[in-house]
Amino acid sequence: MTMPGPIVRSSLALVAALVMAGCFHDSPPQLGCATDADCTTTSSSSTTTGASMDPTTTTGELSQSRTFRIDALRLVDPHLFSDLCFDVTGLVNMFGLSQQIGDGELNLILHFADFEPGALAAVLGEAMSCDLAAQTCVPDDSVSLQLPVEQITEAPCLAVDPSVFAVKNAASLHAPEPTCFRTTAVELALPLGAADAPLNMLQTQIAFNFDDAADPQAILQGVVSGFLPRASAEAVDIEVSGSSYNLWAMVKGPEGCAASHAELLPSVDALAGPDGPIEGVWLAFNATASRVALVPP
Questions:
Q1: Is 1 within the bounds of a domain?
Q2: Does the keyword section mention Signal (predicted)?
């Protein structure tokens, strides 16, 4: 990972326009998408665009549909550092993401209305609530994101270049083996448990495989990756152990921190944009998910 050259003002303006347009959110953390055309807005009686996540009865889902709730989400790259050069990535994962998922406060779901492994189409959404013991979720009717899915029969399943990650971190990423699946790259506002606003990411993809291709009950070896522009990261603060830190400052690390963490820093990357390179960082999360049934409120 190398530092990009100077970023011109027009590039920063482009980033700001990209990450703040359409369905992207500032606060509170909420799943969203980049443009209204990418969003699926549902109601109890109709769907304005594309597929929906219509709940079934309390007895369970129709046999041709599958819904999975993300039950583990862990930031792998980059590592985040406090102002004292302390690696707080584990704290963010444990007390931000893991705790909110375990408490049922963060309920991201991936829904396949017609489950056909050779022709999957997914809807990524949030649930208003989930009964973790009963393995049921009440879908949020406000907004969800349609994600075409490609079936991958030859490795690698991940589309992102592993060289954008620290070597140490890349070795810790899940590595779904074919036959596996990969969503198209989209702009996405992703909630993060310890953040005060969602992460507005570009070129976000989910790669994964199932425990059983014919009758899956879980998503295994999932990876969520995407590019977080600096303009978006600078707008996000994360609370760690009672203290608030700016996300971009945590990505860069304090001055001089790279000397003691040479295997993890620098983390800053550049993404090609129409007006030049966009400064930011590639993010990668390990994820797993378990099957749930959608039920009415």
A1: no
A2: yes
91 vs 81: CA distance, rounded Å: 11
Q: How far is CA 10 from CA 7, 125, 268, 275, 276, in A?
A: 8, 33, 19, 7, 9
Q: How many domains does the chain have?
A: 1
Whether residue 2 is contained in a domain is answered as no
Query: What pLDDT shows up at residue 52?
Result: 58
Q: Is residue 169 part of a domain?
A: yes
55 in Cβ contact with 139 (< 8 Å) = yes
Contacts of 14 by beta carbon, 8 Å cutoff, 6+ apart = 273, 274, 275, 278
pTM, rounded to two decimals:
0.83
**How do 276-294 and 218-229 pair as beta strands?**
antiparallel
Q: Per the domain annotation, does 3 fall within a domain?
A: no
**Segment holding 71, helix H or strand E:** strand 66-77
Distance separating alpha carbons of residues 21 and 169, to the nearest angstrom: 32
- H or E segment and range at residue 247: helix 247-252
Nearest to 69 by CA among 12, 11, 109: 109
pLDDT digits (tens, 9 = 90+) for 179-232: 999 999 989 888 776 677 788 999 999 999 999 988 899 999 999 999 999 999
Q: Between vectors from CA 228 to CA 225 and to CA 232, what angle results, nearest 5°?
A: 150
DSSP state of 242: T
Whole-angstrom CA distances from 284 to 78, 79, 133, 211 are 7, 10, 29, 22
How far is residue 103's CA from residue 100's CA, in Å, rounded to a whole number? 5
Low-confidence ranges of the chain (pLDDT < 70): 1-30, 33-63, 193-194
